[in-house]
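Appendix B. Raw example, untouched.
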Amino acid sequence: MIDDGLIHEIKNKFPFIKNLKDKNKLDNFMRIIKIIKLKNGEKLLEEGDYCTDIVFVINGVVRVYKLSPEGKEITLYRLYGGETCVLNVASIMSNTPYPATAEAEQEVLVGLIPVSFYNDLFFTEPSFQQFIFNTVSTRFQEVIL
């Protein structure tokens, strides 16, 4: 069970949680979420992984990158507190391997929810759908602009 301080931080970083229509899902979210702490340089996801959970960065910074054919790291984007990884979401939605590497750039606190709960939220909760759509839209705009 996570403590009240962390519950408060998660609710503040991810406002969709407070707007869930089904209040039982709020309790389920806090019961189901698995909290992990990563140190600088630890990998959260590696290219080729099949994602079984959705990543929610609570605090810290995660760098998402690809390796060039020459072995150089090419940063795609960074994740900060209150964000989820669009490539993680895309991999789950398409049932394809994760196409990059996600690594802690400093100490990071991350919450993970299983795909089954993600699907339940996505298909029943408009506030969660909006959070996911905003995430995809923001990343897409960052690439183009």
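End of appendix B.
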